[in-house]
């Protein structure tokens, strides 16, 4: 039996998408990138961090309004449910606090988003290389798992900064604005309030039960910076997973030979061996926008639950809410539609945000030569 014709040296099959070159080219092939090298790691992290900052800055005003809607802020309840309400809320914030009011909490956002995005994109590259070692393992499920694990990894290390950002954005008082330091102290010292037991219980039994729970339950400290963390982990699985899966799949489609002449650019001179040609700007933005919309739809109900849990110490009786308890409150207050409050803002926000993030990430990687 004759051997299959050997491929000329230096010639490789094109990768499916910018992060897929190891799926098409074995890791040890001459000229292929080493994703475990220090040079690749820091460059990938910087590219991811810049992508996150650019994307969040672009949509910061809409993000502020969405948080106010999701968290059921009493001063902005009348604005929910329509596009005119979104405009009215932004106008109200502008009249109260000026342009800077629309960016309330954005300093904490930038402080959080750079390490968050850096870890997420870097983790995705590393996890993907392990989960999809070659092209034969290239499946939608493996892409989904790679993205989900990358999202969980990043949120674990940066979640406290997210809680601080939400609390800053939630405040609407004209006077006595909280500083970053005061917010941190307040969150740290907040103590959960136990709900009263049923009235038909004997008072002695109720008191004994409350004392026992208070003795073992954390009352304050670092645990307060992880309000809503469980729902965040649950929401991150579909959000990050669908985001990376959709973006990579759209990259495959847009790089199809019948479309490539309209959607791709020539490879830059410093492009690593095996890397696919970059998408044109409109194509990269389109792929990122579609990824953002699909991932937002899949994870939005859990995002609403998470916001309500995060502000649990700022409204009501300070009771530390559980996922099921928060979901029941939302269902009782607004019905099933309550889980999608602010989704229209979410669509308008997430499409440009995801598009800007993926575009910045890919272009920064090209600029850095990875």
From TrEMBL:
Query: Which Pfam families is this protein grouped with?
Result: Mito_carr
Q: What keywords does the record list, in alphabetical order?
A: Membrane, Mitochondrion, Mitochondrion inner membrane, Repeat, Transmembrane, Transmembrane helix, Transport
Share an example GO biological-process annotation for this protein: transmembrane transport
Entries under Gene3D superfamilies matching the protein: Mitochondrial carrier domain
For this protein, the parts annotated as crossing the membrane are 338-361
Q: Tell me what topology the record assigns in the membrane.
A: Multi-pass membrane protein
Where does the protein end up? Answer: Mitochondrion inner membrane
**Solcar repeats: from-to residues:** 39-130, 138-253, 279-367
Name the SUPFAM superfamilies for this protein. Answer: Mitochondrial carrier
Principal localization reads mitochondrion
Gene Ontology cellular component terms for the protein in this record: mitochondrial inner membrane
InterPro entries in UniProt: GDC-like, MCP, MCP_dom_sf, MCP_transmembrane
* Keyword Transmembrane helix recorded: yes
What does this gene product do? Mitochondrial transporter that mediates uptake of thiamine pyrophosphate (ThPP) into mitochondria.
Tell me its family.
Belongs to the mitochondrial carrier (TC 2.A.29) family.
Q: What's this protein's name?
A: Mitochondrial thiamine pyrophosphate carrier 1
């Amino acid at each position: 039996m004759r051997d299959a014709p050997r491929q000329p040296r230096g010639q490789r099959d094109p990768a499916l998408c910018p992060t897929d070159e190891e799926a098409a080219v074995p890791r040890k092939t001459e000229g292929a990138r080493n994703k475990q090298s220090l040079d690749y790691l820091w460059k990938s992290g910087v590219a991811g961090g810049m992508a996150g900052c650019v994307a969040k800055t672009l949509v910061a005003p809409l993000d502020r309004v969405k948080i106010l809607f999701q968290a059921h802020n009493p001063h902005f309840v009348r604005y929910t449910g329509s596009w005119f309400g979104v405009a009215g809320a932004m106008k109200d914030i502008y009249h109260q606090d000026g342009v800077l009011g629309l960016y309330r909490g954005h300093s904490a956002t930038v402080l959080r988003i750079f390490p968050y995005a850096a870890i997420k994109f870097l983790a995705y590259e590393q996890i993907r290389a392990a989960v999809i070692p070659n092209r034969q393992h290239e499946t939608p499920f493996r892409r989904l798992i790679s993205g989900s694990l990358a999202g969980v990894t990043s949120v674990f290390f940066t979640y406290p900064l997210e809680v601080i950002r939400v609390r800053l954005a939630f405040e609407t008082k004209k006077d006595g604005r909280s500083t970053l330091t005061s917010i941190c102290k307040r969150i740290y010292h907040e103590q959960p309030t136990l709900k009263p037991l049923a009235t038909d219980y004997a008072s002695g039994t109720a008191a004994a039960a409350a004392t026992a729970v208070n003795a073992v339950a954390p009352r304050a400290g670092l645990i307060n910076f992880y309000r809503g963390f469980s729902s965040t982990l649950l929401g991150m699985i579909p959000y990050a997973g669908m985001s990376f899966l959709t973006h990579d799949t759209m990259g495959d489609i847009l790089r199809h030979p019948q479309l490539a002449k309209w959607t791709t650019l020539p490879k830059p001179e410093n492009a690593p061996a095996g890397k696919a040609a970059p998408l044109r700007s409109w194509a990269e933005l389109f792929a990122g926008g579609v990824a953002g919309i699909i991932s937002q739809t899949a994870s939005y109900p859990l995002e609403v639950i998470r916001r309500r849990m995060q502000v649990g110490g700022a409204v009501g009786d300070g009771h530390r809410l559980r996922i099921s308890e928060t979901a029941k409150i939302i269902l009782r207050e607004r019905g099933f539609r309550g889980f999608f409050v602010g989704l229209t803002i979410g669509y308008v926000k997430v499409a440009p945000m995801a598009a800007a993030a993926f575009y910045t990430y890919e272009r920064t990687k090209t600029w850095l030569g990875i």
